[in-house]
Amino acid sequence: MRRRGAETTLGPPIELLNTEWLWSRLPSVQRFGHPGVDRHRGAVRELLSRLKLQDNSEWNDYGSGVASFSDIWVYRDKPAFRRPKYDGADHSYTGLWVLLCRLAPCCVMGQGDKSWSATLGGRYMPSFIGVDRFTTPEIQDLADRVAERLGARGLTRLRKADVAPLLPTEWRFQSNLADGPLRIFDALFHWND
């Protein structure tokens, strides 16, 4: 933590984590600048293959921003996952989002919709409010199966109650995903643009 006047500000949220969790010693940190990216990609490739899923994931920080997570979004091209197409969209689905933390071997999950075509796209934005929120039994079932597979790869699924505790009010950092007081969710899963 750093002090600025009478206010205490938080450095990178990595300071919040127990050093036993950090992946900072993995070779992928030096190559790509993000802890665990290689491990994440391998786990997702396995998920797609074994569970016969499609994906439209965001690995690269949402363009110009910087994210502490990889935003994995998986779905099936089946009626239970299809949504009405928005104006101009060629594809529209509901699916499972999985935020794979780049700071610690953990993830959170929720349900979100995406629509896209060659020239436009629309999507959910992950948030604390959406953690563990599932509106269809197909997505809930998929979440349980994905959590089991990721657990076998050493990634712990955190539940909403795990990431809900508030951080001390004197801690400050920027996140476009923060809504209201900062929570453990915001420390582990933040994005700045």
Task: Write a brief caption for the model.
By secondary structure, this protein is of the alpha+beta class. It has one domain (2-192).
Description:
The chain has one domain (2-192). 23% of the residues lie in helices and 24% in strands. The protein contains five helices and ten strands. β6 (91-101) and β7 (106-116) form a beta hairpin.
| Average pLDDT | 78
In helices, the fraction of residues equals 10-25%
Task: Return the structural class.
Answer: alpha+beta
Radius of gyration, in Å, reads: 17 Å
Instruction: Provide the number of structural domains.
Output: 1
- Our count of helices gives 5
Q: Could you give a short account of the major beta sheet?
A: 6 strands, mixed
* Separation of the first and last Cα atoms: 22 Å
Strand content: 15-25%
Order of SSEs, N→C? Answer: EEHHEEEEEEHEHHE
The residue ranges in which pLDDT falls below 50 over 5 or more consecutive positions are 1-16, 18-33
Identify the overall geometry.
globular
* Number of separate strands: 10
Give a quick set of tags describing it.
193 residues, 23% helix, globular, two-stranded antiparallel ribbon, six-stranded mixed β-sheet
Give the SSE map.
Elements: E1 2-4, E2 7-9, H1 27-32, H2 37-50, E3 54-55, E4 66-67, E5 69-75, E6 91-101, E7 106-116, E8 121-123, H3 137-152, E9 156-157, H4 160-163, H5 184-188, E10 191-192
Parallel strand pairs: 7-9
Antiparallel strand pairs: 1-2, 3-5, 4-10, 5-6, 6-7, 7-8
